[in-house]
Amino acid sequence: MTKSIVCLQKLSHRQQDLIRDAAPGYTLTLGDGKAPDLAQLAEAEIVIGWGKGISDTLLSSESPLRWVQTWSAGVEKLPLTAMENKGILLTNASGVHAEPITAVIFGFMLLFTRNLHTAVRNQLNRKWHSEGSESELTGKTAVIAGTGSIGSETARIAKAFRMTTLGVSRSGEPAEGFDEVYTTDRLQDVVSQGDFLINTLPLTDETRLMFGAEIFAACKQGSYYINIGRGATTDTQALMDALNSGHLAGAGLDVFGTEPLPEDHPLWGMEQVVITPHCAGVTDRYADRVVEIFIENMKSYLKSGTPSRNLVDYSRQY
């Protein structure tokens, strides 16, 4: 029987050819994640992407599924326990987002230090005005929660601005680009040193609502919070309280506990908050990068039976 790869995302002809070349003996079929063909998926050994309503088919006892390559870095929406129990290999798209998301992080930081967010509002009102409170990134300290691909790229670029970079990670192991790295249990101590607290963490049982009232109270007076990780890692009410009190000077937010952010949510009306609609990782190079990860993994899978890059540890949920 022919072995099957089903991709639930759009691919160019070039991307399809690259996958076929890397997977001799396999057929590649393009599906639709929004309207998946269950009969097609029932024959799949490898699935690229994910979609609603496909779990029962892929996790049935008859399913030949052995490996899922997600189209995203986060995997919290997948049936992880059932996948682990069935022995399905899971790889994510970690690393795809590093460059575009880092650009958004620095976009937020530069907006705040140079007051560009208020300049845009003034332009709309044809108002020639500056508070004279502009600053710069040189000499500032960035506390970066998460030292993975996004955190590391952010730290690397921060060094070009001659910033101090402090990392926070589960292991606390040294990482390139960081002056110091601390374990997660030191987060409350470390944030007091930061002019910017940057959250790049995935959503897990450990990180859910990690950034709450205690963390924000420990932050340096007048510092800024940036979240491009997952919305549910943050207690939104505690964040708004810290912003309204003036303890935090501002926030750059790409992710939210509820998405889309409701039209009547008070965050929309806060002038010290800059909002982007969960698009920090969007780039015209996204598909190329995921396909690159998949091809590397496919070669390893054919050789050893296990993909080599971005293999998710079910116990850690990333």
From TrEMBL:
<protein>
    <submittedName>
        <fullName>2-hydroxyacid dehydrogenase</fullName>
    </submittedName>
</protein>
<keyword id="KW-0560">Oxidoreductase</keyword>
<comment type="similarity">
    <text>Belongs to the D-isomer specific 2-hydroxyacid dehydrogenase family.</text>
</comment>
<dbReference type="GO" id="GO:0016616">
    <property type="term" value="F:oxidoreductase activity, acting on the CH-OH group of donors, NAD or NADP as acceptor"/>
</dbReference>
<feature type="domain" description="D-isomer specific 2-hydroxyacid dehydrogenase NAD-binding">
    <location>
        <begin position="107"/>
        <end position="280"/>
    </location>
</feature>
<dbReference type="Pfam" id="PF00389">
    <property type="entry name" value="2-Hacid_dh"/>
</dbReference>
<dbReference type="InterPro" id="IPR006140">
    <property type="entry name" value="D-isomer_DH_NAD-bd"/>
</dbReference>
<keyword id="KW-0520">NAD</keyword>
<dbReference type="InterPro" id="IPR036291">
    <property type="entry name" value="NAD(P)-bd_dom_sf"/>
</dbReference>
<feature type="domain" description="D-isomer specific 2-hydroxyacid dehydrogenase catalytic">
    <location>
        <begin position="11"/>
        <end position="308"/>
    </location>
</feature>
<dbReference type="GO" id="GO:0051287">
    <property type="term" value="F:NAD binding"/>
</dbReference>
<dbReference type="InterPro" id="IPR006139">
    <property type="entry name" value="D-isomer_2_OHA_DH_cat_dom"/>
</dbReference>
<dbReference type="Pfam" id="PF02826">
    <property type="entry name" value="2-Hacid_dh_C"/>
</dbReference>
